[in-house]
Design brief:
By secondary structure, this protein is α+β, with helices and mostly antiparallel strands. The protein is built from 16 helices and 16 strands. Helix 8 packs across helix 9 and helix 8 packs across helix 10.
């Protein structure tokens, strides 16, 4: 029995966020009727000539610039021979040498320590179609072919074999997904197949320099699938070696229901694909100004935004991490903050409302923050009403419920329902005196040294005022009365 080291490399395919496919005008819209978004080019009819989508090239270069890649100015394409029913041409138009982006890196955090993962390349290519496997009425297996996805632009990112655990692989994928979504170059929706991952896994005895035999696991479309597949494959390879067996270089599939990998085919090499230059797409050179103009368009990335949120808005690392984990959430927060009368006071309270009350509602409704019935401006108004003492935190939660249900302005709700907080001292003094008389047991406990007993009296006062009494003023006056 040996102790082994695990080595993992990732090949990540991300659908480029363009309205049309990479070589034709067909729509990339997800969920359309099968084979409705097709034409003579993406169904590979004889004589059809591909025309390159400029936006797809820009998206790959933006992603490369954000990850510190060297941008290769020569843009050329190749044919990769690929015999499978969902590839009607029997080849894929892709990039071989050179790729648009080479030698980048991405840092991930593991147990508070930074790890730099080197990335070999990002290249541009077209997607294949989709086979839908069915079982007929006579229990005969058959497959249906949908070419809506054929010809959709992909950027493929290939890492060096530098990851060493399922956790590191997931950290890398999550960090990459976040960055790419910030850039807007891909939506990265794994549920819609817009981000897929092939994982190369090998193990070797601890201390050995030479890498072990590499096994590729194809086309995983969930984070949990990547994690579970790597974990299973590592244990499978250990069992093979410990029993005296020999691993072979192969491609395997992840069976999510059975939670096992199954052999699919022997792993192809470069020679198997028989690359040669794509004759219908002439190589061309990108200008320096073209690349630099794209560099100027880069947005603030999540890690830089998190640092700024902590520094400028006084947020905790937890709050800043939550708010910047999705670009739409960060944008919503800053929009709300910019609408606030006092940013210094509103910053933390807005963060709390977004990460708790609003987040819970959105999760229950299964919608994203961009679809929130509560606008950033209205949430800012609600927080301002709390800060200026117009309403209490408890009343604010009641108002928020109506805001979410009817998309209503909180100031209108407060005015129409008379929910203004009671802050007059005479009114609160009277309520405190009445509550003390009605709570002899709690008063006795407080005088005996049980300071928490005051909570029961405060609760009675808030009940009497229907939640509208100013809680700070209630506590102040009540303690003064009890000490007397």
């Amino acid at each position: 029995m040996f102790e082994y080291e695990t080595t993992i490399g990732l090949e990540v395919h991300m659908q480029i966020n363009t309205k049309s496919k990479i070589f034709c005008d067909c729509s990339t819209q997800f969920g359309s009727e099968p084979n409705s978004n097709t034409c003579v080019i993406c169904t590979s009819q004889p004589g059809a000539i591909p025309i390159l989508n400029k936006k797809a090239v820009e998206a790959v270069i933006k992603t490369g610039l954000a990850l510190g890649f060297t941008i290769n100015k020569r843009c050329a394409f190749a044919r990769k021979q690929y015999f499978y029913p969902d590839v009607p041409k029997n080849y894929q138009i892709t990039q071989f040498e050179p790729s648009l982006c080479s030698k980048g890196k991405l840092s991930i955090m593991i147990d508070g320590k930074e790890k730099i993962v080197n990335i070999t390349r990002i290249h541009l290519e077209e997607d294949a179609g989709k086979l839908v496997h069915e079982i007929g009425s006579r229990k005969l297996d058959y497959s249906l072919l949908d070419l809506n996805r054929a010809g959709v632009g992909l950027m493929e990112l290939v890492t060096e074999p530098e990851l060493s655990s399922p956790r590191e692989a997931l950290e890398f994928l999550n960090e990459l997904k976040n960055i790419v979504e910030y850039l807007g170059t891909s939506e990265c929706s794994m549920e819609e197949g817009k981000m897929r991952c092939d994982v190369n896994v090998s193990i070797r005895p601890a201390g050995q320099e030479k890498l072990g035999t590499r096994v590729e696991i194809k086309n995983m479309n969930s984070m949990s699938g990547v994690r579970d597949a790597i974990s299973y494959e590592v244990e499978r390879q250990k069992e093979v070696l410990d029993s005296g067996g020999k691993l072979i270089q192969e491609t395997r599939l992840w069976e999510a229901e059975e939670k096992i990998t199954k052999s699919m085919r022997s792993k192809e090499g470069v020679l198997d694909y028989r690359y040669f230059p794509e004759p219908d797409l002439v190589p061309f050179d990108l200008s320096d100004s073209f690349v630099e103009n794209l560099r100027k368009q880069l947005t603030e990335l999540p890690r830089a935004k998190k640092t700024r949120f902590i520094k400028d808005y006084g947020l905790s690392e937890y709050d800043a991490d939550y708010l910047t984990s999705v670009r739409m959430t960060a944008d919503y927060y800053e929009d709300a903050l910019n609408a606030s009368k006092d940013k210094n006071l509103a910053g933390k309270l807005l963060a709390n409302w977004i990460s708790t009350e609003l987040s819970a509602k959105l999760h229950a409704s299964k919608i994203c923050i961009a679809e929130s019935p509560v606008s950033s401006k209205n949430l800012s108004k609600l927080v301002s009403l709390i800060l200026d003492g117009t309403i209490s935190g408890k009343i604010a939660k009641t108002i928020f419920e109506e805001m979410y249900e009817k998309s209503t302005d909180p100031e209108i709700i407060v005015k129409e329902k008379g929910l203004t907080q009671i802050s007059g001292e005479l009114a609160i003094i009277k309520m405190c005196e009445e509550a003390i008389i009605e709570s002899p047991k709690a008063v006795a406990e407080f005088k005996a040294g049980k300071e928490r007993a005051v909570g029961a009296i405060v609760g009675l006062i808030m009940k009497k005022s229907k939640g509208q009494a100013n809680p700070q003023l209630v506590n102040k006056i009540l303690l003064e009365k009890l000490k007397i």
